[in-house]
Amino acid sequence: MGEKVEAVEVKCPKCGYISIVYIPKEDIPKCPECGTQMIIKELLDEGKSY
Q: How many CA atoms lie within 13 A of 32 on its CB side?
C-alpha cells in the first residue's frame, strides 16, 4: 500500500521565502533565494471537517 502524499507549506527561516512541497514524494528543499534549509510551516490538509 502506497503512502499518502500530503501538501506541506515550507518556509525559509532566514529570508521568509514560502513554497509548497508534497511529502513524502519530495524532500524538503533548500531555499532558492538564499540556500538555507527550509522548515515546515503548515500542513495543508484539504477537506477538514469540524
A: 4
The pTM assigned to this predicted structure is 0.75
Burial of 12 per CB tally in 10 Å (0-12, 13-18, 19+) = buried
Angle at 23 between CA 5 and CA 12, to 5 degrees: 145
List strand residue ranges (DSSP E) for the chain, in order. Answer: 6-11, 18-23, 39-43
User: How many other β-carbons are positioned within 10 Å of the β-carbon of residue 30?
Assistant: 12
Q: What is the DSSP letter of 24?
A: T
pLDDT score of 2 more than 80: no
Residue linked to cell 521565502: 17
